Amino acid sequence: MTIRIYDTLAREKRAFEPQDPSRVTMYVCGPTVYNRAHIGNFRPVIVFDTLFRLLRTVYGADAVIYARNVTDIEDKIITASRETGETIEAITKKYAAIYDEDAAAVNALRPTIIPWATDHVGEMLDIIEALERKGFAYATEAGVFFQVSQMPEYGGLSKRNLDDNQAGARVDVDHGKRDPSDFALWKFAKPDEPEDAIWDSKWGRGRPGWHIECSAMAAKHLGKTIDIHGGGIDLQFPHHENEIAQSECAHGETLANYWMHNGFLDMAGEKMSKSLGNVVLLNDLLKEWDGEVIRFAMLSGHYRAPLDWTTDLLEQAKTTLNRIYGALRRVWAAEGGESIDTGVQEALSDDLNTPIALAELSRLASAANGAADRKDAGAMAEARSELLAAGALLGLLTKSPSEWEQGGDSNENARIEALVAARIQARADKDWAEADRIRDELAAEGIEIMDSAGGATWRRT
Ligand code: AMP
Ligand code: ZN
Question: Best exposed site among 245, 288, 367, 376 by fewest CB in 10 Å?
Answer without folding.
Answer: 288
